[in-house]
Amino acid sequence: MAYPKITVNTTQAIHVTPSNSIPIPNPNFLAAIGTGNFVTTGTTTNTATNKLIDASATFQAANPPLPIIIGDVAYNITNTANAAVTAVDSGTQLSLASDAFQAGGNNEDYKIVRQNSLIDEEINFVNLGVKVGDIVVNTDNAGIATVTAVGNEDQLTLSANIFGSLTTADDNFRIYSQQEGSEYYPAYLGSNGGSSTTSNNPGCLIYVGDTGVINTGADATSNQYKNVTVRTVSGEIISFKNFPVGDYLPVQVIQVMSGGTTANSLIGIW
Questions:
Q1: pLDDT tens digits for 183-226?
Q2: Are residues 32 and 151 in the same domain?
Q3: How many CA atoms lie within 13 A of 219 on its CB side?
Q4: What is the pTM of this model?
Q5: For 216-225, which contacts have Cβ atoms below 8 Å and span 24 or more sequence positions?
Q6: Is residue 265 part of a domain?
Q7: How many Å apart are CA 253 and CA 236, to the nearest integer?
């Protein structure tokens, strides 16, 4: 039952990102925590139309996250422009989809971002046991995705582009194991953790919050009440219409659906 949980001091709570495809991760199965990285950074040394040229670069190096690949996005930090990489001409020159580093743009700073990926050179995703299907949360902007491939120890391929821009590539993240079976998944730095049997989420309470100003009385606005659609532990999808902000849903929940949910600050409590 949900109500007894409200009356005790619980040990786990996380912000919940609504998703029609991704369940709420169980905080007991935190596999990794870190900060995203750019593929590479530098300063241009020459200019040519639709090119990025840096005589000191190593665009074709074989040390992850290099080499640069087609589809990476180069950001001109000095003059605020960006373009996708269309070809890797050499270790020091890239072809771009547009002229983001225009003639006369010598000595312009740049950063290169990989799409649908998470890069972190400070931790080792392989040693931490990160696997396909694990849940990745961008904790700076509440983006959520699943791991679709473990490229190497420094790079994951994701189901959504939650770290794919200049402003999100170096955001903070958390990764939660989402495997089924009898394998043991320790939490970050070895604390907590447990054994997965059929699901990594036993169900949680949802505190319904919203970042809008809550007015009361005669000037009450719609920010007092929000819609929340959830999947319960038994699998049903239920919509709570006009639910009061600042209260708990009276059911155990394993997923908050993005469709049908208007509250924008939800917390899962175990």
A1: 444 433 333 344 433 446 678 999 999 887 655 554 445 568 99
A2: yes
A3: 3
A4: 0.86
A5: none
A6: yes
A7: 10
Q: What is the spatial order of strands in the sheet that 205-209 belongs to?
A: 13-16, 265-269, 205-209
Q: What is the pLDDT of residue 228?
A: 97
pLDDT in tens, 224-269: 899 999 999 888 899 999 999 999 999 999 899 999 999 999 999 9
Asked, for residue 20, whether it belongs to a domain, the answer is no
- Residues 45 and 106 placed together within one structural domain of the fold: yes
The answer for residues whose C-beta is within 8 angstroms of residue 74's C-beta and 6 or more apart is 52, 82, 83, 84, 85, 94, 96, 100, 101, 110, 111, 112
| Bridge partners of residue 248, in order along the sequence | 207
Contact 264, 213 (CB under 8 A): no
